[in-house]
Design goal:
The complex is a heterodimer of chains A (564) and B (360). Helix content of chain A is 71%, strand content 2%. Chain A has 564 residues and is mainly alpha-helical. Chain A has a domain of 226 residues: MetI-like fold. In chain A, helix 8 packs across helix 10. Chain B folds into two domains: 220 residues, 3-Layer(aba) Sandwich (Rossmann fold), CATH 3.40.50; 123 residues, Nucleic acid-binding proteins (OB fold (Dihydrolipoamide Acetyltransferase, E2P)), CATH 2.40.50.140. In chain B, the strands form four sheets. Chain B has a six-stranded mixed β-sheet, with helices on both faces. In chain B, strands 11-12-13-20-14 form a five-stranded mixed barrel. In chain B, strand 1 and strand 2 form a beta hairpin. The chains are: A mainly alpha (564), B alpha+beta (360). The interface between A and B is medium-sized, with 28 and 37 residues.
């Protein structure tokens, strides 16, 4: 490949990120710190901390992040420890199934969980039927600020991230480290506490940081649960009165600042310590066969966790075929009417088309740019290729809500991105927004492909008279097709169920993507709930198809895409 | 200080048999070596003694205690791992103190004993260092201190020097022997480095296919190998296939081979070969001396194929007319080096240096 092309790719990527990543963030920061006369001021950010409602929102967001993280760890840690040590019946299948909840949209699942935990929900009905609860005073599981439901939904969605990180840390642990403790008389839980846990802490914290930032800024779930007193929802509400009001900007800056600080602290605490052992491991870990009874207990533990985690989505499926479901264990009658109604409803049909359009274009864009960026990073010695790599990974660390807000602010009349809104159609800005957030997945899978494909294969082609460009086309790209398809499928399916960009940037009903249509339907009266769940099932079907496809292509390697 | 008695020990991993009905006695206070090619079962045996593998059959006794089913943390052995397995989240002091803390030793005593142990391995000034600030040799010393400080019934060393450079290895192996003897420790040392074993072992066992092929002091194993595997695993040797002609009065045998007649004795004194039986002769390169004149017996004739001069020693390879095609000779303090390829040379051996082992 000629020397100028990597430079061109580099220049384009830097420019693209400058305009569509840094500039929106910078613009938001600027609005938050400079008054209309261009004077620097701390009064807007200060106002956030003086306003009891915003302060409560922040505290609630913090609680939401913290409790979701702790709950995810509580679920994931025992599972990871067991899987790292024992063989038990059905292990291979169960450990893969355990990751499924990560790819199910919590936004959709939240619809279903209300059906189980509401005052007239399944759990209460069951308890009343068993005589454990007084029918006159049903307990409201989701009451008391609804934080419980939000945390539960987040944890059931995000525990796979903790599981993957802890498993990776355990796999890197030299078994001799534990044997040495055993040998010196330290055993069982004591050994776990004194040796194993301290050694895997960096991995635990890496996972926790991602989960915390994710749930700290989560918008979809609290919206569905009507949990309004939380920063993300307050920002979402704030965009309705944006013109001339600096407070939403300040709120976004506070949220961004908090995530950056959390990220920095976790890097500072654990980034420096490299616990990877210096010598080579003396023994491979041999998996113990669990005793039959314990083994089946482990099987049950894994199966139950997965079952509970997908329960909300099962609820959505049931809701979508329920004629009536109120105060009973299962829907009292079943019907396909909601699907028929959904097909007749302008909002749903349009939204499926819109989502397909937005997701396809953004995926195409990601694959093109991903191939180019990964090529420069892996195959060239261009100075600054590491910067390129870091840039491409950056969207993983910045909350989607912050970026969505940045785009929204710039797309206002008279602002820099206004020209990207064609009439009232947000297609360009949405495609860009979707693409930026999902670029890391594609870059990562393409880079993995390049790394697995020896350069000498390309050189052999060039040696036979192929130009560098042709050799890339004829040799390397076909060899990494699997990686590209897998990365592309992930980008596509995540884009199909994107929440923050979709909710914030699509303003006209005819441009709504699926997620916003679901949100609009829920707020609608009448059979809105049922229509929303029918639409949710459609979305999950799309998602399942693409994820299963990606899983078939990538196999065991799929987990690697979710590690940061 | 304990003696260790192992009877009929069998350990399987799925289909593969790592140890099959192994018997072994290790005396109290002995520095005992386990050697063998990779996959022979030596590490499995060590880990079984430490309790990390539970055997399917057989028993392990420390003195009169049956420890076969005792979990590792109750065996009071101390193991030094090949990777050292020092915990990076604890500093040098805390690593060494770990075992004593587990034994609930009072704090002041811990401080004293840890410092003593560190002094003994010459790491007294490094107590507060982090593990990743230490070199490989220093880590090795800390690992040794951590194992010794608990005053174990038995010290286990799993290839403790394999991560060190050659010079440090020689220094550390004498150090390990000094410390073991000072404490009167029973120590079991696994290695694949024969030099380590020959230089510091009291006794050694050569394992082959999950069984003990030979057991004895270093010079006995080296000079009188019982089998071809042992002869070739410890040191270099030339194998000459032959057949037993007759038995001599002194217990030696006359052996005929394609390249001449030899007088030899069995490596294993209990082995009584029959007349006419096939056998292998093992003659080590340094047992052959070169000459240009032919003598009648215990001589190999061949043309010089290669000569390598190394100063204190010279290596020659002779090509012979039949099996074996090549004979290796090592001449100590070579005064004159023969370099002309194709020169006809004779290599003679003393009958005391020619060992008979069963033909495989």
């Amino acid at each position: 490949m000629s020397r100028s092309i990597p430079k061109l790719i580099f220049a384009f990527t830097v420019l693209f990120f400058a305009v569509f990543f840094l500039y929106p963030i910078w613009n938001t920061v600027q609005e938050a710190f400079f008054d209309p006369d261009g004077e620097f001021t701390l009064s807007f950010v200060g106002a956030i901390f003086r306003n009891p409602i915003y302060l409560e929102g922040l505290i609630n967001a913090f609680k939401m992040g913290l409790f979701s993280t702790i709950a995810s760890l509580v679920i994931a840690l025992p599972l990871a420890l067991v899987a790292n040590r024992y063989r038990f019946p059905g292990k291979d299948v169960l450990t893969s199934l355990l990751l499924v909840p990560m790819i199910l949209p919590p936004f959709v699942g939240a619809l279903g969980i209300r059906q189980f935990l509401g005052q007239t929900g399944v759990l209460n009905t069951l308890l009343i039927d068993l005589g454990l609860m007084n029918p006159a005073t049903p307990f409201d599981w989701m009451g008391e600020g609804q934080l419980f439901g939000v945390v539960l939904m987040n944890a059931l969605h995000l525990y796979p991230i903790a599981y993957l990180n802890i498993s990776a840390a355990l796999a890197n642990l030299d078994p001799a480290m534990e044997e040495a403790a055993e040998n010196l008389g330290c055993h069982g839980l004591r050994r776990l506490w004194r040796v194993t846990l301290p050694l895997i802490m960096p991995g635990v914290f890496a996972g926790s940081t991602i989960i915390f930032i994710w749930s700290f800024t989560e918008l979809g779930v609290p919206l569905i649960f009507d949990y309004g007193r939380v920063t993300s929802v307050q920002i979402f509400d704030g965009i309705k009165e944006l013109s001339g009001n600096p407070l939403p900007y300040a709120l976004v800056v506070v949220m961004l600042g908090t995530t950056v600080v959390i990220y920095a602290i976790s890097k500072w605490l654990f980034g420096r310590e490299n616990f990877a052992s210096s010598g080579r491991a003396s023994t491979g870990r041999t998996l113990e066969h669990a005793k039959p009874l314990t083994g089946w207990l482990f099987t049950a533990l894994f199966a139950a966790t997965t079952a509970i985690a997908i329960l909300p989505h099962v609820g959505v499926i049931l809701l979508s075929v329920a004629g009536d479901w109120y105060g009973t264990l299962l829907p009292s009658e079943f019907t396909a009417q909601h699907y028929i109604d959904a097909l007749g409803h302008p909002l749903t049909v349009n939204s499926i088309g819109n989502s397909l359009k937005y997701a396809s274009f953004s995926t195409l864009f990601d694959i093109t740019l991903g191939i180019a960026i990964a090529y420069v990073v892996v195959r060239t010695r261009l100075p600054g290729r590491h910067l390129l790599d870091a840039l491409a990974m950056l969207p993983l660390a910045v909350p989607g809500l912050v970026l969505a807000f940045g785009y929204f602010a710039l797309a206002q009349e008279g602002q820099a991105f206004d020209f990207l809104i064609l009439g009232e159609d947000p297609v360009i800005i949405l495609v860009i927004a979707y693409a930026v957030r999902r670029l890391p997945y594609v870059v990562r899978s393409a880079a993995a492909g390049y790394q697995q494909t020896s350069v000498s294969l390309e050189e052999a082609a060039q040696n036979l008279g192929c130009t560098p460009w042709r050799s890339l086309q004829r040799v390397t790209l076909p060899l990494i097709t699997a990686n590209l398809i897998a990365g592309g499928l992930l980008a596509f399916s995540f884009a199909m169920l994107e929440v923050s960009d979709s909710l914030i940037l699509a303003e006209q009903a005819q441009h709504f993507p699926i997620t916003k249509a679901i949100y609009a339907l829920i707020s609608a009266l009448g059979n809105g709930h049922y229509l929303a769940s029918a639409l949710g099932v459609w979305a999950m079907l799309f998602l399942a198809t693409t994820i299963i496809g990606a899983g078939l292509i990538l196999g065991q390697k799929m987990g690697a895409l979710f590690r940061v | 200080m304990v003696s260790i008695r192992i009877r009929g020990l069998t350990k399987r991993f799925g289909e593969t048999i790592a140890l099959q009905g192994l018997d072994l006695d290790i005396k109290a206070g002995e520095l005992f070596f386990l050697l063998g090619p990779s996959g022979c079962g030596k590490t499995t045996l060590l880990r079984a003694i430490a309790g990390f593998h539970l055997p399917e059959e057989g028993s392990i006794h420390f003195d009169d205690d049956d420890v076969t089913q005792v979990p590792p943390h109750k065996r009071n052995t101390a193991m030094m791992f090949q990777s050292y397995a020092l915990w990076p989240h604890l500093n040098v002091f805390r690593n060494v103190a770990f075992g004593l803390e587990e034994q609930k030793v009072p704090k002041p005593e811990i401080r004293e004993r840890v410092q003593q142990a560190l002094e003994m391995v010459k790491m007294g000034d490094y107590a507060q260092r982090k593990i990743n600030q230490l070199s490989g040799g220093q880590q090795q010393r800390v690992a040794l201190a951590r194992a010794l400080v608990v005053r174990p019934r038995c010290l286990m060393l799993d290839e403790p020097l394999s991560n060190l450079d050659a010079k440090l290895r020689i220094e550390m192996r004498t150090e390990i022997r000094r410390i073991c003897k000072e404490f009167g420790l029973t120590a079991i040392y696994v290695t694949h480095d024969q030099k380590e074993a020959l230089s510091i072992a009291d006794r050694m066992a050569i394992l082959d296919g999950g069984k003990i092929a030979q057991i004895g002091p270093p010079e006995e194993v080296y000079r009188h190998p019982h089998t071809a595997t042992v002869a070739s695993f410890i040191g270099e040797t030339n194998f000459i296939p032959g057949a037993v002609e007759s038995a001599n009065m002194d217990g030696s045998y006359r052996i005929s081979s394609a390249i001449g007649e030899f007088t030899a004795s069995p490596g294993n004194p209990e082995w009584k070969p029959q007349i006419g039986q096939k056998t292998l002769l093992s003659i080590r390169p340094e047992c052959l001396s070169l000459s240009v004149e032919k003598s009648s017996q215990n001589v190999v004739a061949g043309k010089l194929a290669e000569s390598v001069y190394l100063g204190e020693i010279a290596h020659y390879a002779l090509k012979t007319e039949s099996d074996p095609k090549t004979i290796h000779i090592a001449e100590l303090n070579p005064r004159r080096v023969v370099r002309e390829e194709g020169t006809l040379l004779y290599a003679a051996a003393d009958p005391r240096d020619i060992v008979m082992v069963p033909a495989p």
